[in-house]
Amino acid sequence: MRAVIQRVSQASVTVEGKLISEISKGLLVLLGIEEADGEEDVVWLSKKMINLRVFDDVEGVMNESLLQVDGGLIIVSQFTLQAAVKKGNRPSYLKAAKPDIAIPLYERFIAQVEADLGKKVGTGVFGANMKVALINDGPVTIQIDTKNRE
Q1: Positions in the chain short of pLDDT 50
Q2: CATH superfamily of 2-148
Q3: Domain coordinates of the chain in residue numbers?
Q4: Helix or strand or coil: residue 80?
């Protein structure tokens, strides 16, 4: 699994003109799932993500996690994060999981995050053409790949 995690002061997801998710202070997560991903990736990434110390403490130092600041969270599926661009100029998406694998893992990841965070999270709509809006706070953007844990 690959995640691009952005600290935001606000974010939203709209599909066909309808607001699907919206948060103020928190994290917007773009999530790419590959064929080789499984339960271990889901659990590890959820815990890593919600415990990242990327929010400022009272002294202005990034020292607090999403849990500590009681921030919002939106998770958006984005298969293009699995793009390979080594050859030519057209990205290859061969590593991206097909919907029969990706959808259950995406839903499992959302459930895991909600359990670890102790509250509901916002989402996008899998496979839809989404309009994702955000104000990146900092900017703070962190990329995590579960295949590079060591």
Answers
A1: none
A2: D-tyrosyl-tRNA(Tyr) deacylase (3.50.80.10)
A3: 2-148
A4: helix
